[in-house]
Amino acid sequence: MSLPPPQTPHWRHVYRALLRESGYLPDPIARQYMSSHVRESYRAYWPRAIPNSYTGPNGQFYLERRARKLLSILSRANEGYMKPLERVLMLSYGRIGRRRHVLARPFFVPNSSGDKTPFRFILPPTCPPSWEPIPSLSALMKSQIENRHLSDVDATPVIREIPQPKKSIWNGHVSKRKVQKATEKWYNMVIKSVLPPIPDQEWNTLHGLVVGKEPWSLPKRRKRLDTNHKGSALDAEFLVFGPQKDRTFEAYVRGRPHKITRKLMTPMWERVLLATPRMTQIPETKDWIVRWGEPVVSPIFRTLDPELGINSWLFDGVDRINGALLKPKEPQT
Fold it and tell me: Which single residue of 88, 127, 137, 201 could bond 187 by disulfide (Cβ 3.0 to 4.6 Å)?
């Protein structure tokens, strides 16, 4: 008796699909980050807080659900759905998600790296006693509070000043417990709200994509194999369920796919750039300067190229300097 052929595990299909969709993303930084994130999630990631926490059936179900959710986001982003595509860009550039914690770790744990650290330990979960932000974090938070363009980006939370606890009605005294609670609340808000800078090379790439200096092209998809599904009109499915409906708008209830072009991507790149700072330190004073991406100002009235205007027949009989109408010469009698 021959043994049945070995079946490929279903998680391997999901892994290949994740890598395939990551390679089709329309952003170069997103392609690189999502591919490495998928490989790290399948190979290098292992929780250190609770050993063997994902070996049971519940843990495996959680991991598979998380992988399929990411696959759904990537596939819909490649199809041109706006919200999943912008979410992928925010995840890739560290405006939300795990990478934002990794980029923000040096502000909370100096001289450290969070590349191989589990997500729950990237940033300290509890507020250290008598915690105060370092000078670079203070400059970043102050600049983020003053940045008025962040209101145009929906994915970025709001950061505020440290809340002051209420004083006592008798002698105006504030207990240490209230001060500690206010500091802990502010610490948690800063962790959830701070937008750390990205490496200079990635910032230059993002800025070049926004202004049009960085070359861009959409990755070409592999063609699927042609499958001929020639079914009989009297097959079992037709006899049981009847004729199938034509295309409906059910798939477009939560948005519709768009054709991905540079014109479609530029506004999303610009929103990511508005939420991405650059930090430089002055060597003499040790002060930090924070610069944020600025929106590209487009002209209100489009102008015609002078060379095209001169060579256009529409402007025959018009003076090219002052725009006056040239009168034809009267024939001499």
Answer: 127
Q: Is there a contact between 89 and 27 (Cβ–Cβ < 8 Å)?
A: yes
Asked if residue 274 lies in contact with residue 153, where contact means CB atoms within 8 angstroms, the answer is yes
Distance CA 41, CA 57 (A): 18
Nearest one of 192, 190, 199 to 276, comparing CA atoms: 199
Residue 267: how many CB atoms within 10 A of its CB? 14
Dmax of the chain from CA atoms? 114
Matching residue, tokens 């021959």: 2
Long-range contacts of 8-11, Cβ-Cβ distance < 8 Å, separation of 24 or more: 11/64, 11/67
DSSP H/E element including 163: none
Q: How far is CA 64 from CA 57, 68, 71, 119, in A?
A: 11, 6, 10, 18
User: What is the residue-wise DSSP string for 259-279?
Assistant: ---HHHHHHHHHHHHHT-EEE
Residues 1-13: tens digit of each pLDDT: 455 555 556 778 8
Write the pLDDT tens digit of every residue in 67-110. 899 999 999 999 999 999 999 999 999 999 989 999 998 898 88
pTM above 0.85, yes or no: no
Q: What is the dihedral of CA 42, 114, 151, 34, to 10 degrees?
A: -30
Residue from 230, 147, 229, 240 nearest 194 by CA: 147
Q: Which residue has the tokens 């609670």?
A: 181
